[in-house]
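Hey, can you fold this one?
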Amino acid sequence: MRVRGHVLVCRGPDCASRGAQEVYTAVALAAERQGLHEEVTQGQSGCVGPVCGRGPVVCCYPTGAWYVDVRPDDAEEIVRVDLGAGRAVERLVGARVGSA
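Sure. Predicted structure:
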């Protein structure tokens, strides 16, 4: 099995209150539907300070894109474009950290 990427969903207090659990679940389901669930590792993180207050925040690697104001409906696009094709979903990017 080849790991294609890693996705972290912030579970800090602000993101949690704005629906981070629903986003986390939507990302997992999107990866399953798109056949990427075995190639993408998914986890949760604490607060990702630089974009705090703009959550839910989703961080994807290796692109280094930190997505802000993510809704469950955005999960399909994040999985397809970022994790599947290796390109950032520009309309959701709030910051970039350590991108290649």
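The helical segments are 13-17, 20-33, 75-84. Let me know if you want another pass with a different chain boundary.
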